[in-house]
Amino acid sequence: MSTTTSTPLLDVRGVTMRFGGLTAVSNVDLTVGQGEIIGLIGPNGAGKTTFFNCLTGLYVPTEGTVTYRGNVLPPKPHLVTQAGIARTFQNIRLFANMTVLENVLVGRHSRTREGLFSALVRGPGYRRAEADSRAKAMELLEFVGLAAKAEHLARNLPYGEQRKLEIARALASEPGLLLLDEPTAGMNPQETRAAEELVFAIRDRGIAILVIEHDMKFIFNLCDRTAVLVQGQKIVEGDRETVQNDERVITAYLGTPLEQPTETTE
């Protein structure tokens, strides 16, 4: 298990995101160390996905900086991917009418070096790059357990396997940091356990992970540290015990302060 005593892989400082008069994320700091799995939780509307969007270039933060491997990230999604950060989405965004293999090959795009002319003439360089991409894509499908369905259309996969495919496509860009936005949403308990095992396997490949999730058991089984967002602000960060016992967290999820029930008891 890694620590953040050395220079963090991801260093987020004072990130704020405003939309007109609404502050969706307010002055959030967060670090992710090499090989860490960090959780991000909070009630609906807490700003978790907005925060992810600030990290991946979909939004340009109103204030603050996002640094990856010591470099401030450019506010363009494709440049963030090239830098080494990949993500999945809360709502699955696969190419439904493409095959499973083709979806992963799309994820390889940021790591290929062949230009348009080479692709048009399909010269030796292009053919070598294409063969290499296919081999790496198949290795990733094997890794997530979908190799046997490489030629199936993505839309025909069961929901849990679509989630796995989206992760495989993200991994195809060879990230150092993977952001997962509610990877177990809609999954049954068996699928959730498989997703947990997959996340650990990804970490074992040397990839750090930042994950948003509503399933508390999943988060606390998985994560080295967990940060809690409430109304766009980070209210606490720490290990399972620290987060679970924090009265502000309990208040945020239950909607009432802890003191209220005790005041009416004898």
UniProtKB/TrEMBL annotation:
Organism of provenance: Streptomyces tateyamensis
Superkingdom field: Bacteria
UniProt-listed GO biological process terms: D-alanine transmembrane transport; L-alanine transport; L-isoleucine import across plasma membrane; L-valine import across plasma membrane
Keywords: ATP-binding, Nucleotide-binding, Transport
Entry-linked PANTHER family: AMINO ACID ABC TRANSPORTER ATP-BINDING PROTEIN, CONSERVED COMPONENT OF ABC TRANSPORTER FOR NATURAL AMINO ACIDS-RELATED
InterPro entries referenced in this protein's UniProt entry, alphabetically: AAA+_ATPase, ABC_AA/LPS_Transport, ABC_transporter-like_ATP-bd, BCA_ABC_TP_C, P-loop_NTPase
Gene Ontology terms, MF aspect: ATP binding; ATP hydrolysis activity; L-isoleucine transmembrane transporter activity; L-phenylalanine transmembrane transporter activity; L-valine transmembrane transporter activity
GO CC annotation: plasma membrane
Domain ABC transporter positions: 10-256
Protein name (Swiss-Prot/TrEMBL): ABC transporter ATP-binding protein
